[in-house]
Amino acid sequence: MNVKVFFVKNKDLYLEDELENIDLVKDLIQINGFSSKSREIIFLPSECIKDYDSALLVGLEGCSNNSDYLDIGLKIGKSLSQDTKLTFANSKKLNLYHVEFGIYLSQYNFDEFKTEQQELFNIEIESNNNSDEIKRKIKSVFWVRDLVNYPSKTKSPEFFIQKVEELISDLEINLTIHDDDWLRKNNFGGVIGVGQGSERKPKFLIGEFNPNAKIQIALIGKGVLFDSGGLSLKSPSGMETMKTDMTGAATAWGVMSLVASQELDIGLKVYTPLVENMPSGNAIRPGDVLTMRNNKTIEVLNTDAEGRLIMADALAYASEHNPDLICDVATLTGASYVALGLDIGAVFSNDDETLENYLSANKNSHEKYHNLPLEESYKPLIKSVIADMKNTGGRFGGAITAALLLEEFVDDIKWLHLDIAGPARNKDSKSATGFGTIGLYNFFESFTKNQ
Predict the structure, then answer these.
(1) Do the Cβ atoms of 331 and 424 come closer than 8 Å?
(2) CA distances for 205 relative to 60, 109, 218, 274, 384, angstroms
(3) How far apart are alpha carbons 59 and 30 in whole angstroms?
(4) Distance between CA atoms of 16 and 407, rounded to whole angstroms?
(5) Using the 8-state DSSP alphabet, how is residue 96 labeled?
(6) Is 423 helix (H, G, I), strand (E, B) or coil?
(7) Are 403 and 419 in contact (CB under 8 A)?
(8) Looking at the predicted structure, is the pLDDT value of residue 330 above 70?
(9) Alpha-carbon gap, residue 371 to 350, rounded angstroms
(10) Which residues are catalytic?
């Protein structure tokens, strides 16, 4: 089906030269109550448009930011039900990048475990220079969503590795896989400690792209494939979304594949510890002390504050290689979305310029972020009586105290921490959103523009 799309802000624009049978157009506008408000759309039959199967009127009135344009694209995409070629009538007048992104984003579906699966169809947008880049971004976001949406019974460390290998098979990325013996021998006390309660042994993945680039960045992603809370057991409802607690690891690999496919002139090294946090006779107990990769010790008062333990090991290991910048991404704390809600990612940094650059790179993105402070006066909250620190700072300021613990493992390197526990999950369906993939890519791309 060939469809011509008209973006309109007032009724005067309805009478484009390409539209025919204007009386019928006016009747359909009136019948549908179309007033060109943002997200309003109506289809016009072939009798109303030359050389096309249909025309589509899309309202833009009140559209004020790129998130609005993305939502319009989603609405257009979800209105289609068959193979469609879209042509934008007035694309020269508007920056339709986010509309196109939304159209392609609307095609996501995860029905692998349903007996009746949705029939797939293709959407193509004619003569748009952004299409190839957008499709690469969509591919990465969809891969992240898929991996996060898989149930934990399926999502073993070996399954995660298989999916990563498929993702990077045609890209210039070197993958190294370490097992639990390597982790134990190399003093990864946090990863081993969290993972020892599960029959599925932990893994540690390292990916490397463009190691000779002038700018070298490390990216750590939290890979808790299922989080029961360990012996500090979550409630049944609290476990419902915990197959998604490896979103950070999936995001890190989605970003890595996008950076490589776009051939950005940066070096990127990804570190993803993969564990399950399970209760058993072998699980760590509240009160246990773990010795981390950099030999600092952590008293584990709550086994459900486990993500920071595996992230700390990975941060310490990445620091040893002295990159120009260390970033990490994790569904780390419920406190982050208590503070910022379910749509905004929390950003922390030990460097003001790095923080400002991240926020600036995403100022016009459909992903929303807000910075939270690394409040030095809160450090006593994570001080332990018997170890260097403890893994929980109490009920208040939980996102901040978790970030302060991670900061202990990055040495004096510039560091950016994303806590995406809220926006990583769709608030209605509790499925994955892919949030963080585009935000980190935008940030990394900004380095190539400033060289």
Answers:
(1) yes
(2) 45, 28, 13, 8, 31
(3) 14
(4) 58
(5) -
(6) coil
(7) yes
(8) yes
(9) 11
(10) 234, 308
Write down the residue that tokens 């808790």 correspond to: 224
For β-strands 203-209 and 267-277, DSSP reports them as: antiparallel
Return the axis-axis angle of helices 97-105 and 66-78, rounded to nearest 10°: 40
Instruction: Give 23-66 pLDDT, tens digit per residue.
Output: 898 899 889 998 888 889 999 999 999 889 999 999 988 888 89
Residue 334, H or E segment = helix 334-340
d(CA 363, CA 360): 5
CATH architecture of 2-123: 3-Layer(aba) Sandwich (3.40)
As its CATH architecture, domain 136-449 has 3-Layer(aba) Sandwich (3.40)
Which amino acid does the sequence have at 171? L
Residue among 212, 262, 271 nearest 449 (CA): 262
Question: For all residues of the chain together, what is the average pLDDT?
Answer: 94
Q: Counting beta carbons within 10 angstroms of the beta carbon of residue 167, is it exposed (0 to 12), middle (13 to 18) or buried (19 or more)?
A: buried
* pLDDT higher than threshold 90 for residue 17: no
Instruction: Pull the structure tokens for residue 378.
Output: 């809160």
CA–CA gap between residue 412 and residue 344 (Å, rounded)? 28
From first CA to last CA, the distance across the chain in angstroms is 45
Categorize the per-residue pLDDT at 11 as very low, low, confident or very high, splitting at 50, 70 and 90.
low
Alpha carbon separation from 40 to 5, 90, 433 (Å, rounded):
13, 17, 24
Longest dimension (CA), the chain: 82
**How many CB atoms sit inside 10 A of residue 49's CB?**
23
209, 161, 166, 203: which is closest to 183 by C-alpha? 203
Contacts of 352 (CB under 8 A, 6+ apart): none
Q: Where are the alpha helices (DSSP H) in 150-225?
A: 157-167, 180-185, 189-195
The domain spans of the chain are: 2-123, 136-449
Structural contact between residues 311 and 418, judged by C-beta atoms closer than 8 angstroms: no
The answer for 39, left when phi > 0, alpha when psi is -120 to 50, beta otherwise, is left
User: One fold for both 2-123 and 136-449?
Assistant: no
Question: 385 and 408 in contact (C-beta within 8 Å)?
Answer: no
**Cα–Cα–Cα angle for 90, 94, 100, nearest 5°?**
90
Q: Which helix (H) or strand (E) holds 357?
A: helix 352-361
What is the CA 201 to chain-centroid distance, rounded? 26
DSSP 35: -
pTM of the model: 0.96
- Residue 205: strand pairing partners: 177, 272
